[in-house]
Amino acid sequence: MANRTAIVTGCSSGIGRATALELTARGYDVAATARRPESLADLAVERTLTLDVDSDESVAAARDAVGPVDILVNNAGFGIDGPVEEVPLAEVRRAFETNFFGAARMIQAFVPAMRERGSGTVVNITSVAGIVGGPLAGFYAATKFALEALSESLHLEVGHFGVRVLIVEPGAIATRFGDNMVDLRGRPGPYAELATLWESAMGVLGGEGPTPGPELVATKICDALEDEHHPLRLPVGADAEMIAASRQGTSFDDFETAMRGVLQLDW
Fold it and tell me: What percentage of the chain exceeds 90 in pLDDT?
């Protein structure tokens, strides 16, 4: 149990914060990171660190400060929603810089030491949006699909050296994720009706019970880390598990028909 180390990005709130705390509770020395150091002031972990995953220099400085780790959790990211024809591409590039290239920077910074040591795990937190691209979320889904593809390739490359990869695909989780979201869904125009319909559909998908908190994701991650035979992909939440099970082995046309029926989406 001693001297197990982890670095987690995006720990100011939500899944990153909960994961840093759960790893700490399970005996890891955790370096919790965020862009705003004040957001980490009350976080009871081994150390906190200012980190901007968009910056090559910031990532290199974190690597030098923390040193080799056993676990890398790539959680930093933000949402971007709106019709594909309307979202400014400058915002799309910004989302890719954090959601995709930020994870890639961290991988390139921390995986070499894992490979040389012959052990370690990279946890890439994607989303149910990395399984299926829903309406009005095309660009966010694109960042997560890209991270899923990168993770598959990384798994095939570094597994030979004893380094594991875990793709975590949360569904609806009660966090402050929406605070930093670029949300262009509610604007007047040809997709305003779709935005209203999709909001109702998401209510159906969420079910009648309360939305789970980020602690569920953190627990699932840590349980998987303790399982030497964990699967590559880990959907988290009843909605994510249902979508993942429905999507596997089903043509997109059949999946779309089924989901339209479940969500009562007439568009």
Answer: 76
